Amino acid sequence: MTNFMSQWVYTPVVKDHFMNPRNTWQEEENFQADGIGEVGSLSCGDQMQVMIKVDNDTISDLRWLTYGCASAIASTSMMSEMAIGMSLHDAYHLTPDKITEALGGLPEHKFHCSVLGDKALRAAIDDYLEKAGRENPFKNSVAKTICECNGVTDMQIEDLVKRGEAKTLEQLQEITKFGTVCGKCKQQVSDLFDEFKHIYNV
Question: What is the model's pLDDT at position 13?
Fold first, then answer.
């Protein structure tokens, strides 16, 4: 029982960010965002929107709105504090591990809640760069190769799912050719595919 309960104990930092979340969006504020990122789905669980203002390739301000649990709220609040003042490059490389570390940890079964803030922030930066007519120079630097034989990355899988070009695992394999050589990557690709479908509600 002690081990089970310890997995669900929140740190004082998590409790503070849950009870007093920073940089939340307020309708009356009329926040004018340069980029907006939205991930998740109410039908599947947590949903999150991140709005950023950008000045000289630096996030000068940020607001967010989420429907989720205490861990999701605290993680996004911490992410917002960390991201403001960061360059777009550094913000794009802000990971769930870094957010969780700043919170002093999350219960083991709640770590996935920090992933949505990470994804929504990247989506907001993607949106800003697309609106500005600029190429995204950050994607390749954060991409991880999942299928070594055919050079398929997690970012490539994410983009195909997000854009609706790969609605099934079979379509994803037809496009990327993952798992057609040694086959060792199939389970990992399948897990990522399911995760991205959940995050982007497609």
Answer: 93
Backbone angles phi, psi at 52, to 5 degrees: -125, 150
Q: Is 45 helix (H, G, I), strand (E, B) or coil?
A: coil
pLDDT at 7: 45
Distance CA 20, CA 44 (A): 26
Residue 34 tokens read as 């340069």
Quickly list H helices, 49-112. 70-83, 88-92, 96-102
Instruction: Find, among 39, 77, 37, 35, the residue nearest to 60 by Cα.
Output: 35
Flag whether pLDDT at 60 surpasses 60: yes
Q: Which of the residues are catalytic?
A: 44, 113
11-131, which class in CATH?
alpha beta
Which one is predicted more confidently, 88 or 110?
A: 88
pTM above 0.85, yes or no: no
DSSP for 1-17, written as a single string: -HHHHHTTPPPHHHHHH
Whether the CA torsion 191, 196, 199, 202 is positive or negative: it is negative
Is 70 exceeded by the pLDDT of residue 44?
no
Domain boundaries, the chain: 11-131, 143-200
Instruction: Please provide the CATH number assigned to the domain covering 143-200.
Output: 1.10.10.1100
CA distances for 172 relative to 46, 157, 175, 180, angstroms: 25, 8, 5, 12
The first and second tokens of residue 82, run together, are: 């960390």
Lowest mean pLDDT among 32-41, 59-68, 102-111, 167-176: 102-111
